[in-house]
Amino acid sequence: MFLKFCCRNVRETNFLTIIFIVVLSFESCISRDKRSCGEVFVQRSQNKSGFHRDLVTNVEWDILSSVGDHSNLLDCQLLLIEELPSGIFIDVDQIKNAVEFGGPEVLSTETINVELLAHHASSHKIFVFPKIAFDSRLGTINANITIPIHLRYHPAAEGTKFVSVSLSSPTIVGRCNGINSPAKQCGTTPFKAPCDATQLFSCDWIPLNSVSKDQSQSNMPLVLRVPVGQIEHTWLIIALTVLSTMAGCGLILWNSLAIT
């Protein structure tokens, strides 16, 4: 009797152990698939100073470890959706001219007034379609994106020479035409967005989670410091402006009298 009881307990323990191992393995596979499909490494930086800068974004998407199909990778695309604050704008014509030199295609669904001051402008969304490259050694899809951005003039401030403008991390989505149901494989819900910069059609994109290689900077906004005028200099500027105007008028009057 005791032997039967022991054997039954051993069998039940072994059965539970097997179930536990299977569940852990299944969860591990799901986590690996979601991580491989649904995450991209992103690095952001800015070049130049003043009111005209370059926004540099490097994206690395490791989708190959999940789909395992190298034959259709030329049909893969990345899309960055940038939400530009009121203090930043892009010149669409400038970006279009840079496409033939390797720059990304950019779609703006709104008309951008490049003359507005920061406190009169509003935020706007742009869709960035970068050129991608395949790293067969690492099995990743990479994009190195440089976009010229411009900072708007801000109102004069008191006690400071600069104000800060924060640029949030972009929403990044991806898709591969040659892969059947990529969003289902990655365990995510498809995201509708324009297929390309022509905006003729909408496509299903895979929402991707941006991860910084430096975990301390993950999803942190990029902060740009903008030079501004100082309120305490108001009277000095007014005085200099009036004196310059009077000097110019006097010079014109002097020349007119000399000619006559």
Question: Which features characterize this protein?
Answer:
single chain, alpha+beta, 5 helices, PIG-X/PBN1, membrane, transmembrane, about 260 residues, 13 strands
Offer a quick outline of the entry:
This protein has 260 residues and is an alpha+beta fold. The protein has five helices and 13 strands.
Walk me through this protein's architecture.
The chain is an alpha+beta fold and 260 residues long. It has helices at 2-38, 64-67, 92-99, 182-185, 234-259; strands spanning 39-47, 52-61, 76-84, 88-89, 105-108, 124-129, 133-135, 140-151, 162-167, 171-176, 191-194, 202-211, 222-227. The strands form two sheets. Strands 1, 2, 3, 4, 5, 6, 7, 8, 10, 11 and 12 form an eleven-stranded mixed beta sheet that branches. It has a two-stranded antiparallel ribbon with strand order 9-13.
Mean pLDDT: 80
What best-fitting shape do the alpha-carbon axes yield?
elongated
> How widely separated are the two ends?
133 Å
**Helix segment count?**
5
Write the layout of secondary structure elements.
Layout: H1 2-38, E1 39-47, E2 52-61, H2 64-67, E3 76-84, E4 88-89, H3 92-99, E5 105-108, E6 124-129, E7 133-135, E8 140-151, E9 162-167, E10 171-176, H4 182-185, E11 191-194, E12 202-211, E13 222-227, H5 234-259
Parallel strand pairs: 1-12
Antiparallel strand pairs: 1-2, 2-8, 3-6, 3-10, 4-8, 5-6, 7-8, 9-13, 10-12, 11-12
